[in-house]
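The data are quoted verbatim here:
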Amino acid sequence: MNNIFQRHRRLRNSDSMRALVRETALHKEDLIYPLFIIEGKDVKKEVPSMPGIYQYSLDRLDEELDEIVGLGIQSIIVFGVPKDKDEKGTSAYAEEGVIQQTIAFVKENYPQLTVIADTCLCQYTDHGHCGVIHEGDVLNDESLTLLAQTAVSQAKAGADIIAPSNMMDGFVAAIRAGLDEAGYQDIPIMSYAVKYASAFYGPFRDAAQGSPQFGDRKTYQMDPSNRLEAIREAQSDYDEGADFLMVKPALAYLDIIREIKDRFPLPLVAYNVSGEYSMIKAAALNGWVDEKSIVMEKLIGMKRAGSDLIITYFAKDAARYIDER
């Protein structure tokens, strides 16, 4: 028979051969685990729409942190769930706020962990929007002042990385200036540069208790139909001094991840969001999918698309799967 075609199967004929030519790998160092810390005492409350994900009060957080460290996960991102909310989200930047106390606790007791502070107001405002409201509109420039104040308070508490997620125009420039002025020139910014107004966020809003009380977030988060707008958003944050760029959500936006990775020489973070987590969990609990296989395939897909790091609620599961290889 004439050899008129390529024998691609030669490189797939054994486990060791497939491992030898594997192009993409997932490591524990790639994983960032999200944590929700709620004000109160002796709280460990499962999020109903996110099986296996809990809100913890600070006095019980060590249970979760011990497990995270034991699994070899090196980075966490923290979200605060305050008891009191107001129109300007003042507990977001309070010196003794829930997230500031959390950051200080983690850095004192688990100094090996990299602590990333989500910087937004939506969990702290009584209207659930990410900035200051006037006559039903989210005011951009007035919100920047409070977001910079929040970032400085988080850096002061000991955060290693500031991760602004609010999608106000100019937020990286405002936060960079605020951090520099306060003496935190060495604290990097992980910008939620490309954040779509996505239906995949629903379970997160249960966990963070931050649903908008009126309207939606489409005047500041992006239209899922847009690709060029993603490039413009990333370019702005790059020019303003971001140290990492993030695309959120991940699964439905792998094309955007690849495009941003190819255009900007910064570490790229994919946020594997709550809806993506809950769909797989629900299917696995019903016996419809093999959870381990589908989780690892999905995370490898995000790495192959160009992600250097992945924020994922599956981080603990993935760390166990990596150990089993």
About this structure: The mean pLDDT is 94. The chain has eleven helices and twelve strands.
